Amino acid sequence: MKAAKLGLKGDSLALAAGMTPTEYRQLVLFDPIAEYAELKGRAQGEREMAEVLHTAAKEGDTKSALAILQHQHGWVAKQQLSIDVDQRISITAALEQAQSRVIDALTLDNETETIEFKEVTKKSLKAA
After folding, report:
1. Residue 79 lies in a domain
2. 50 domain-assigned
3. Partner of 4 for a Cys bridge, out of 25, 38, 46, 75, CB 3.0 to 4.6 A?
């Protein structure tokens, strides 16, 4: 129980208890009290360390407080900045931008030629 309280496990626990690892495994198989003693020792050790951390945190130790928050409460410091941008565009503005890009591209391709665009209206589309 004392070795489990200190956090020892497996073969180290068996050797600290004065047994070989094989003897300890057999003891646990045949005597449920041995396993209970190990579990009780672990619980006592965890409780003592939790009390130490909580006492230190209450006295102003920020590392202890942070350890409690992270490991017991799942707290994680924010590491990433999230920016959401809600942008709305109008279809007419998008079409105007697209048309200006086409004009620029045609002007670059045909620097010597002049290209004229006619304004398209609803009436001319129906007539076509």
Report:
1. no
2. yes
3. 38
Report how far residue 32's alpha carbon sits from residue 12's, in angstroms, rounded to the nearest whole number. Answer: 20
pTM for the complete prediction? 0.51
Question: 44 is written with which tokens?
Answer: 């006592």
pLDDT per residue as tens digits for the range 52-91: 999 999 999 898 998 888 888 887 777 766 777 767 767 8
Three-state SS annotation for the chain? CHHHHCCCCHHHHHHHCCCCHHHHHHHHHHCHHHHHHHHHHHHHHHHHHHHHHHHHHHCCCHHHHHHHHHHHHCCCCCCCCCCCCCCCCCHHHHHHHHHHHHHHHHHHHCCCCCCCCCCCCHHHHHHC
- By residue range, what is the domain housing residue 26? 2-73
Q: Taking a C-beta distance cutoff of 8 angstroms, is the pair 21, 15 a contact?
A: yes
Q: Is 69:75 a contact under the CB 8 Å cutoff?
A: yes
Is 45 a domain residue? yes
